[in-house]
Amino acid sequence: MGKFALTKNRIVSLAILVVILVFLALLPTITKGYLVTLVADMMRYAVLTVAWVVFCAPTGYLSLATAAFYGLGFYVAAVFNGPLPFAVVIIIAGVVAFIVALLIGLLTLRLRGVYFTIFTFAVVLLVNNVVLEVERLVTGTRGRFVETETAQTAFYAMLVVLIATLLTAVLIRRSRYGLALQSIGEYEEAAAHSGINVVMTKVLVFATTSVFMGMAGAIIATRRTYIDPGIAFNMTTSFLPVLMAMFGGMGNLVGPVIGAAVFTYIGETLLTRFPDLYMLIFGVVLILAILFMPAGILGLGQQLWRKVKGGRRAPA
Amino acid sequence: MHLLEGKGVTKYFGGLAAVSGVDFYVDKGEILGLIGPNGAGKTTLFNAISAALKPTRGKIFFKGRDITPLPAYRICRLGIARTFQTVKIFPHVPVIRNVMVGALFGTGHRLSAREALKKAEEVLEFVDLTDYKDVPAGDLTLANQKRLEVARALATDPELLLLDELMAGLTPTEVAEASGDIQQLRQRGITIIMIEHVMQAIMSVSDRIIVLDYGKKIAEGTPQEVAANEKVIEVYLGEECDVAS
Questions:
Q1: Range of the domain at A106
Q2: Contact A194/B92, CB-based, under 8 Å?
Q3: How many CA atoms lie within 13 A of A125 on its CB side?
Q4: How far apart, in Å, are the Cα atoms of B192 and each of A80, B113, B184?
Q5: How close B37 gets to chain A, by Cα (Å)?
Q6: Chain-chain contact of B93 with A195 (C-beta, under 8 angstroms)
């Protein structure tokens, strides 16, 4: 905890991180084409996956509420973008997601296991239908137009949110709350009897990570001209981060980022090259990944690396 | 004023009274033994004290303060720590960090990470687990997992420690060691309530013993008094005699 010894490994990782960030920062100045949109999309899923992993991986609480917070971000953008500056809109989306997640957390985080998962699934449907009914009865509309932003603006906004998500994730995992979350996941009762305020820890971390989901939604919404509840609260947004986290590996934060990037790329490629077979191939890839890479891409990489280095066991 | 006092503590599970109108107390520095046949309500009483369960009726006071409505983490921070009948450690977390959980969250005041680490190392030394501090807790033997639970509880700086069948499943040598450890805990100024089925251990260690049967207190007194009590011999020790004859 808090010990920042500058080992060789750490310098190498930091150097790689800096190179990636510089590359990302310069990307929209090099090309204005599809690549910017693709990378922005990868970053969007990296935000959702990392935010999901911070709470769900250590605690073992499998949340499917991601789409609710993400969709609320869509609607915040639809209502406020234009009248208010884009940066303020993103912050409002984060605040709205936080408050809603706080309420949902207080209701659901007393549930455990599959009951929690089903409840979070239902929450997305609930928010979806509430928005739908409000539009039908109060505003008398169906869907809304969104004041758009350029691909570059959305790209940089997403980059900033991604960096904020990763920083928050690192801070939580390294702090005492990281240990608290892990204790809760390992034995919740023992955690409570060791002095951890289990409910408050879970609710606060759940709400904090939801902030980034809402922000990502607000940014992506500005790349569309029209949204409706079906688009905003699409359940796929809840499932993908779970799959991407499994695909990348949840042992640390690099796994989810790589998982999100590779998964997004594979998905896009399949969708454009084989639009008819897209889902079929995707399903097979996913099943193979789960069967043969239980620790994700990162775990597989570590295994191969160990073999290359001559079968020495890595220190535990 | 007693350190801990329970008045008419009652807990129903459906229609069954697991604990029924039990009055008890423990004074500072005492070792109180809690015995009784299986299903007598001993662990339920522990659960009521540590707020794992809310009593159906009755109140529990710690240093004169009514702690009945408080949640488990508050009870821990006030100075009541416990271990579990079936060990509840954090199996994939290294031993030292298991103990640090207690130091970081359970003491009632905020320790820095460094202070918590120091405290954790100190209690690991006390329970003799220093050599295993970086091992995942799930890899320890049962006896060592029980020591780890005690260490985690001690790291919360308890005034009162509830030990639920610490000696069950231990070898005679380990039981002797554990008895010695309990005496040492008392010398540290920690008051102890212990549930135990290992008779010779609880009789030699306890200052006072409460006997429960079917959720009711049927006897209370020094180990000698309890051992001579007719009701106790009938419901508890009597069984042993019948089997022996």
A1: 8-308
A2: no
A3: 5
A4: 61, 28, 11
A5: 25
A6: no
Inside any domain, residue A315: no
- Residue A296: predicted pLDDT: 78
Across chain B, mean pLDDT equals 92
> Residues A55, A56, A60, A64: what is their CA dihedral angle, to the nearest 10 degrees?
140
Q: Do A194 and B101 touch (CB under 8 A)?
A: yes
Query: Where does the pLDDT of residue B244 fall: very low under 50, low under 70, confident under 90, or very high at 90 and above?
Result: very low
User: Is A2 within a domain?
Assistant: no
Most confident of A151-160, A287-296, A300-309: A151-160
Query: Going by C-beta distance under 8 Å and a sequence separation of 6 or more, which residues neighbour residue A35?
Result: A27
- Contacts A195 to B, Cβ<8 Å: 73, 76-77, 101-102, 105-108, 156
pLDDT over threshold 80, residue A312 = no
Which of B90, B92, B108 faces A190 most closely, judged by CB atoms? B90
Q: Which residues of A touch B76 (CB under 8 A)?
A: 192-195
Q: How many CB atoms lie within 10 A of CB A93?
A: 31
**Of all helices (H) and strands (E), which one includes residue B217?**
strand B216-221
Q: What percent of chain A has pLDDT over 70?
A: 96
All domains in chain B, ordered by first residue: 4-244 (3.40.50.300)
Q: Which of A192-201, B35-44, B90-99 has the lowest mean pLDDT?
A: B35-44
A314 domain-assigned: no
A102: domain CATH number is 1.10.3470
CA distance B105 to A178: 12
Characterize A100-139 residue by residue with b for buried, 16 or more Cβ atoms within 10 angstroms of its Cβ, and e for exposed.
Answer: bbbebbeebbeeeeeebbebbbebbeebbeebbeebeeee
| Residue A3 belongs to a domain | no
Per CB-CB distance under 8 Å, the chain B contacts of A179 are: 93, 97, 100-101, 104
ipTM of the complex in this document = 0.90
Residue from the list B50, B92, B113 with its beta carbon closest to the beta carbon of A186: B92
- Tokens of residue B111, six digits: 């320790």
Choose the mutation target among A186, A193, A199, A203 for the interface with B, i.e. most B CBs under 10 Å.
A193
Instruction: Give the position of tokens 């310098």.
Output: A11
Count of domains forming chain A: 1
Report the alpha-carbon distance of residue A26 to residue A43 in Å, rounded.
15
CB B142 within 8 A of CB B169: yes
Q: Tell me the C-alpha distance between B193 and B172, whole Å.
A: 21
Residues of A in contact with B106 (CB under 8 A): 194-196
Does the structure show a pLDDT above 50 at B151?
A: yes
**Nearest by CB: A182 against B50, B90, B108:** B90
CA distance B225 to B209: 9
For chain A, the average pLDDT equals 89
Q: Is the pLDDT of residue B220 over 80?
A: yes
